[in-house]
Amino acid sequence: MSLLETEVPITDVITTGPEKAKALENDVRAKILDMLADEEMTIEAINTELERRGEEKAKTTVRHHVNVLKDAGMVQLSRLEEAGGGTQKFYKSNTRVFSYELPESAETTLNDAGGTARKGMTELIEQLYADHGEEIEAAASEMKPCEYCETQHYEEFIVRELVNRALTELSEDGDLDALLSSSI
């Protein structure tokens, strides 16, 4: 006899590669990404900012975290500068992590907006496949299985990546802010 039985719908999908997922296993790395998304920083500056945020870490530990993020392709060396007979390295993030939770009331408040988004996404995906279906399928055929997944959703992953990249470009170019502020 079952004590509990309930439907558990998928309500969130995270698209990332295994290396990025492993890199984000540590919350300090998410903080570092947040800092480096807005400005380039040295290991020393990252360490100082982490301390300000309540994270006391040795510089070697901070360097390790930055290297993990760099190896995952989420942080890049952005500048080298001569300083005191040595070379100072500056790092910058090419990845932004939004780590928020919607308030409970958002489920009801955003219900109509969700319907509008779904309708718009349906139209977008239909148009995307009409214009670029062969390219999406060709890219999907070259993908390797995820080490964590038994079933593969290559085409879905590609579509999500295309939408995510388009939103990221709009955001980073300032166009998304302009669209949002002009709608208010």
Automatic annotation (TrEMBL):
Pfam families, per the entry: HTH_20 (PF12840)
Q: What SMART domains is this protein classified in?
A: HTH_ARSR (SM00418)
Write down the CDD domains for this protein, in alphabetical order. HTH_ARSR (cd00090)
The cross-references to InterPro entries, in alphabetical order and at most eight, read: ArsR-like_HTH, HTH_ArsR_DNA-bd_dom, WH-like_DNA-bd_sf, WH_DNA-bd_sf
Q: Which residues form the HTH arsR-type domain?
A: 19-111
The molecular function terms in GO held by this entry are: DNA-binding transcription factor activity
- The name of this protein is HTH arsR-type domain-containing protein
Q: What is the lineage of its organism?
A: Archaea, Methanobacteriati, Methanobacteriota, Stenosarchaea group, Halobacteria
